[in-house]
Amino acid sequence: MNKPFFKVKILATIFTACLLIASCSDDDNNNPLNQSISKEDVQKNLDLEKASAFVDNLIMDQSSDLVTPGRSGKNSNECIDVAFADGSYAITFTDCNIDGNTINGKINVSYTIADQAITSSISFEGFTFNDSSIEGNKTTEYSANFTDLTFMYSVTSDLAINIPNVITGTIKGTKKFEISGGLTENTIIITGNWDVTINGESYSLVIDPSLRGTSVCGYIVEGVLTITENGSSASIDYGDGICDNIATVTYPDGTSEEIEL
Predict the structure, then answer these.
(1) What whole-number distance in Å separates Cα of residue 59 and Cα of residue 80?
(2) Strand 132-145 to strand 80-85: parallel, antiparallel, or no bridges (unpaired)?
(3) 60: alpha, beta or left, given left = phi > 0 and alpha = psi -120 to 50?
(4) pLDDT beneath 50: ranges in the chain
(5) 199: Cβ contacts below 8 Å, ≥ 6 apart
(6) Whole-number Å distance between alpha carbons of 225 and 17
(7) pLDDT tens digits, residue range 96-127?
(8) Residue 5 falls within a domain, yes or no?
(9) Do the domain assignments include residue 2?
(10) Strand partners of residue 132
(11) H or E segment at 106?
């Protein structure tokens, strides 16, 4: 299936880049004498986030449809079935190929709608993302102001994700997205913090204080993301608002380097 299922993929695309660029620096910086947080550590965090962000985007897309006048939650992908009941729906994937990702299983969602806002509780039933199993739950809040074209989306995750033979991990925490200017040319402000465990190792990820991206630029253009493990921290500085593909990574020993997104 070539048709993107999500109308607001830009959020996951921009946010995933927050972690992805940290894995793009030269191999020399993987020397344990230079840092205690390696590129491999960051890449594993990225792999977990990619699976989690897929579900976030999915639920936000459905929420957008449910609160937008004249729309109802639905899809046009033959491999996806959305079954609605009173105050709930279930999304079933059967061997779906969406943007190169293979999806199977079911996501169960219960929701309430008030004015132009929707609150959802999400659980999983035999759900796999590229053969990675996802269990646990998410709660989301989505609101839209169609007068000034602003959208707010908050997602709290408590997930267990297993990537066979690679990662047994968890994600716990909250991210918030503030979108202004509509869904085509917009500014996105991202805040939040979350804790990750990967094969028994613990990480803390904090956005300090916010990240800013634009759909026109396609990159995070401002803000800092900090990854901490065992008291050592690496930071990714996205710049001062100029649209470019450059960020600066500072490692636990204080050394820094510019990297390309």
Answers:
(1) 14
(2) unpaired
(3) alpha
(4) 1-10, 12-13, 17, 20-35, 71
(5) 167, 168, 169
(6) 11
(7) 998 888 999 999 999 999 887 899 999 999 99
(8) no
(9) no
(10) 129
(11) strand 101-114
How many Cα atoms are found within 13 Å in the side-chain-facing hemisphere of 96? 24
| pLDDT on residue 38 | 73
For 27-69, the pLDDT digits (tens) are: 444 444 444 777 677 778 878 888 888 888 777 777 777 766 5
Domain that holds residue 139: 10-260
Residue 114 bridge partners (DSSP):
117
Cα torsion angle, 23, 24, 25, 30, sign: positive
In 3D space, the residue among 216, 212, 217 whose CA is nearest the CA of residue 185 turns out to be 216
Is the separation of the CB atoms in 90 and 37 below 8 Å? no
3 in any annotated domain: no
Cα→Cα distances 199→156, 175, 228, Å: 22, 23, 16
Q: Is there a domain that residue 97 lies in?
A: yes
pLDDT (0 to 100) of residue 15: 56
Residues 6 or more apart whose Cβ sits within 8 Å of residue 117: 67, 141, 142, 143, 144
As for how many domains the chain has, the answer is 1
Predicted local confidence at residue 184, as pLDDT: 67
pLDDT at 105: 95
Torsion of CA 3, 100, 205, 172, to 10 degrees: 80
